Amino acid sequence: MPTEPTTKRSWRIHATTGSPVVVTVFALLLGLMVGAVVIITTTPAVLDAWRGLFHSWSAPAHALNVTFDNVGAAYRAMFTGSIINPPQLWHSLVTGRGWTNSLTPLSETLTYATPLVIVSIGVGIAFQTGLFNIGANGQAVIGGIAGAAMGSMVHMPSVFHLPLSLLAGVAGGALCGAIPGLLKAYTGAHEVIVTLMFNYVTYAFLLFAVLSTPFQQPGQQNDIGRTMDSSAQLAPLFGAHSGLRVSYGIFVAAAVVLFAWWLLNRSSIGFDFRVTGANPAAARASGINAKTVIVLVFLISGGLAGLAGVVQVASTTHYVDGGFLIGNAGIGFTAITVALLGRNRPVGIVWASLLFAALGVGGRNMQSLTGIPLDLATVIQSAIVLFVATPLLVKEIFRLRGTTQGSLQLATKGWGS
Amino acid sequence: MTLLATTPPHHAHPTDDRRVYAVGVFMALIGLFTLLVFGLGCVARASSSLTFNPISVVNAPWHVGALTLNARWTNVVVSLVILVGAGEVLLRRPRRGLMTRFGVVAVLFLVALLIWAARSPGPSPIDFINVTSILVGASATVMVLIFGALSGVMCERAGVVNIAIEGQFIAGAFVGSIFASITNDFFLAALAGLVAGALIGWLLAFFALRYQSDQIIVGVVLVTMLGSLSSYLNLQVFTPYPNLNLGNLAPNLPIPLLAKIPVLGPVFFNQPGFFYAMIILVGVVSFALFKTRYGLHVRAVGEHPRAAATVGINVVRVRYLNVTLGGAIAGLGGVAFMATKGQFQVGYTSGLGYIALAALIFGRWRPSGAVVASIIFGLSVYLSYDLVTYQVPVSIYVLQMFPYLITIAVVAGLIGRVRAPAADGLPYKRD
Amino acid sequence: MHLELRGITKRFGSLIANDHIDLEVQPGQVHSLLGENGAGKSTLMNVLFGLLTPDEGQIALNGEVVEIHNPGEAVRRGIGMVHQHFMLVPVFSVTENVVLGFEPTTSLNRVDYRQARDDIRRLSHKFNLDVDPDAIVENLPVGLQQRVEILKALSHDAELLILDEPTAVLTPQEIDSLMTIVRSLADSGKSVLFITHKLKEVKAIADKITVIRHGRVVGRAEPSASEGELASLMVGRDVQLTVEKTPTSLGEDVLRLRDVVVLDDRGLVAVNGVSLDVRAGEIVAIAGVQGNGQTELVEAIAGMRPVASGEITLGERDITNCTPRQALDAGLGHIPEDRQRDGLILSMSVADNLVLNTPRRAPFARRGTRNLAAVNTNADALVGRFDIRTTSTQAPVSSLSGGNQQKVIVARELSRPLELLLASQPTRGLDVGSIEYVHRQIVAYRNEGHAALIVSSELDEVLALGDRVAVMFEGQISGVVAPTTSRETIGLLMAGTRETSAD
Fold this sequence. Notes:
The complex is a heterotrimer.
Chain A: H1 7-16, H2 20-42, H3 44-51, H4 59-82, H5 86-95, H6 99-128, H7 136-153, H8 158-187, H9 191-211, H10 249-266, H11 268-278, H12 280-285, H13 290-315, H14 331-341, H15 346-370, H16 375-388, H17 391-398
Helix pairs in contact in A: 2-16, 2-17, 3-4, 4-15, 5-6, 6-10, 6-11, 6-13, 6-14, 6-15, 7-8, 7-9, 7-13, 7-14, 8-9, 8-13, 10-11, 14-15, 14-16, 15-16
Chain B: H1 16-39, E1 47-51, E2 67-70, H2 71-92, H3 98-117, E3 128-130, H4 131-157, H5 165-183, H6 186-210, H7 215-238, E4 252-254, H8 264-269, E5 270-272, H9 273-291, H10 293-303, H11 305-310, H12 315-341, H13 352-362, H14 367-386, H15 397-411
Parallel strand pairs in B: 1-3
Antiparallel strand pairs in B: 1-2, 4-5
Helix pairs in contact in B: 1-2, 1-3, 2-3, 3-14, 4-9, 4-12, 4-13, 4-14, 5-6, 5-7, 5-12, 5-13, 6-7, 6-12, 9-10, 13-14, 13-15, 14-15
Chain C: E1 3-12, E2 15-25, E3 30-34, H1 41-48, E4 56-61, E5 64-66, H2 71-76, E6 79-82, H3 94-99, H4 113-126, H5 142-155, E7 160-164, H6 172-187, E8 191-196, H7 199-205, E9 208-213, E10 216-221, H8 227-235, E11 253-263, E12 269-279, E13 283-287, H9 294-301, E14 307-314, E15 317-318, H10 324-329, E16 332-335, H11 339-343, H12 350-353, E17 365-366, E18 369-370, H13 372-385, H14 402-414, E19 420-424, H15 432-447, E20 451-455, H16 459-465, E21 468-473, E22 476-481, H17 487-494
Parallel strand pairs in C: 3-8, 3-9, 6-7, 7-8, 13-20, 13-21, 16-19, 19-20
Antiparallel strand pairs in C: 1-2, 1-4, 4-5, 9-10, 11-12, 11-14, 14-15, 17-18, 21-22
Helix pairs in contact in C: 8-17, 14-15
């Protein structure tokens, strides 16, 4: 038996043996470094400074200065735009005013993170069961449509309206998730292909929905759906006049986190999920019905994605349009990376969502302050996840020791049926 | 004592018959729909004209008269053809060629839809279908899909899932636009796109082979990364330096004489160089994969890497090579796409890479199949946009769903049975 | 070709898979390497074929000492291997498979299939290996697929052919034809190394026999040796196992098998009409060389493989073709043959693994919510009671030694109320201490008046544990005998000599 190391040494061993946490931290660093390299190689001012490298003795120092200035300004803008702007905060503390401005960055980050947490947890639950739900975005779209329809086309008091709208979103997403689940369980169709294709089916359905009479915003020719009644909206947490968008949706997200934590760590059915994900053969031998598990997981995963869709609508725009969750704005796609970064665990996903939300929100501030496009945030996000998914590479770069837990593997069988 | 059991040989799938039946019923439903809506839905005297003269008459020193059809009876005939096909499937229960039959039915359905959409009197302001311009217009989409599907063939035949085709399109289109703008030479642009795509392919191979990361995850992340990186660079580079993204269309290179053939000329022989490159590439890839020693090694590696290794084939090297080459082909496809649009735009490949993946699967991992699938999918994607002008009451978005729904049906084994290379997507470990 | 292995040693960590193995094969000779699964035969062949590098020892081909680093090199030196799991691409034609890696080409790097086909025809004619060069391999019966493997080896001019468990997947007819082929190959001057655990075949085909066990050569024999002698050599008697058994009174029948027929993965009959009863208070041990249907029988009882015909009753319940869940609920405790695949979730904690089969049962869960306190209390109790060596009950099972992993399974199964304990190869790969421990637990369980069915290919284990010993051969029970029966008699039964004795 190994002897217990002293506390001091155990910290050092912890930092150099490449435990998952350490790898994640180093992956974050690497991601930020990739972002810095992108900034350096594409910002004209920086490039100009380096071009003059041999013009004078002070040129190298100047070039470095310019480089640090630009990279620093970008990352500083990201921080102040997503978390806190210290001078602004100081101003508020001293004068007692301007709290709206001081708190807007955090509020925006939380607003962005709220649906992201929910959908990522759905993706994470599927990952823990060994299933890849790449169609969370489509499920969120359907959930958003269903929720917005319930919120705008039916009228009733808020006590019923809001829960029913949320439920409609869950049902829409679950329905959309059930199809790949059923196909996987009963025909063996690879869930990656089916869910991938479903994203586009749902997108076409979205355009169809927002342009068709019952759902289209009355008096509109454009691809805009009806606005949800205020009784179905998730109201801003600090009142409609606070100027802060963060809404009661965070309680929905908190409830989802608690539910997911219970499901994965405490419930019997979640135990079945994890057993199936870790070892399908042993799962079968211990009496677990794989088909039931697959369908159930896709129902839950799709339902959560649908919930995220409706939370997104009900807390921000209050209507869906043709650009709802498209491209890089698709939280269902970000969710894949968030779940991976959070190691598919509810609490980890909360942290990862906050980080990615901060990167996204901060990116906007960066764009307006420094002119560096906010897409840099997504580049950094994907770089981080690429490194997280390849722990061996991170260990090689930082010369971490210790046993390698293998790279992430999900696909246990090939395409087709 | 004998150990031979009396069970049937395991190659006869007991569910096959039910599946064939389902396909037959499905085809019959399509036929009935065509008959009732597209055929009998037209008034008896409704007519649709098919025209064949290209819009720009410069390259067409020929004239083909319009063909005016009675919309109702033409579609009734088309629907009857579909129904006969369905009847044949239901009665004879063929075991092979189901997907081909289904493809023909799909195309017939699209034809009937067009004739119905352009009927006169009818809601449409346009009462003719310009066959040539539809084919020419769709050929650009089809071409890009074929490039993507060929890239998939190269990678997946060697056992690596290339879900990053979309990313390679983006990289190719971006780099291609810069080179085309600077040099005004599409050959150089093509080369640059080739290299860019190859780099992305190599990156995928690097993570998948060296670190055995999940190929699907790496692919998805690469697509996200390249999408956002291209958007970033678009603002950071193309906005301050618009002359890097000028908007050049690749010139058509008419082939003497052949280009003058009515209809076929504009569609096949008056196209940009990329189109001809695509056709040559289809031939080259088919030949290389199925006739050469190299191709035999590739397919062995994709089916049974250990068996390949025991006869001295370097599995990892073959995979690196093929994924890089596959990336290069998709990169070229990206340049070709850019060259039909004139310049790089953010997000304009949206989903084409995934339709290409679908075409690859529908085409059963064969270049020829991928071509057929790309034609069907490309046509339906193109028509879904083109039909807007006909003010069709049914939503065009149903047509947009078409390629995806078909692919889902295919992987679920509802239409035909596809089989991916056995080792596709699985990491390979040397003992 | 003349092959000589001198003192080949191969270690995997602390495990010695091959321990100074000497072996000599003469040209024109069929040399049989006989041993149980896990005896080290495959390791030895992989060393010879360049898939593994030996830690010690030499390989000499035709008197010349060589080093073989990869399969390609082995092939070039004239070694051909017919793998147990065929190295054939199922969707390729026979021709494509045979030429793979050694293709004749024409211009443009094209494979010259015409020449390849001609070569195959000539070769198959020469060695009487009739097979259609254009057939797709997956459409061929297994016997023909094997011919393709042999052709493939011969086409690379192999002078030494290694056949790794070549009959494991064949029907008797196919086996007969394989024997003819092997004999004619030897007659044409090739040397053949024939690896198997089946005694009958060895006697039928071998010119020389080497028996290995636990990585060591334990004996050499001529084919004239009796099957009983060979069997007892093969199963050995290294460990003297003695377990205290108290006499118990036999109770009711707990498990009843009636004419049970089970098919294997390929649809061939693996269990052919087995009828057997296990009564409360006794251990019935199934002996037999591996691959005679034991695995399939166990899987059928556990609900993991369909029963083609016949009837299985556990206690009062008919569990024929039930699901694994139903079998567990009916009171079956199962220690699976492949514990890491079927019995444990390696990445999960010891505590979770200890309730793997009963996560929903009180007190471990109530109304869908797990009671982790109860799970941990249970784990603490079982870790103490079954002496599971682990740093913590929360440590992943993967951090435990093989013996302790098996103790986790034993503890899990024996700690809940059972009708029957079904254990398959319960001590495979364990150290002596753990073997003793597992044996004591099983016997203690029986001493309390319970029933157990044990399957083992270790004769010593069978004799030490069993109150009755049923011997399986080719899917049937060839005899049920008392554990005091002589090894020679049991060896004969294992080799298929039928006997209707004490039951």
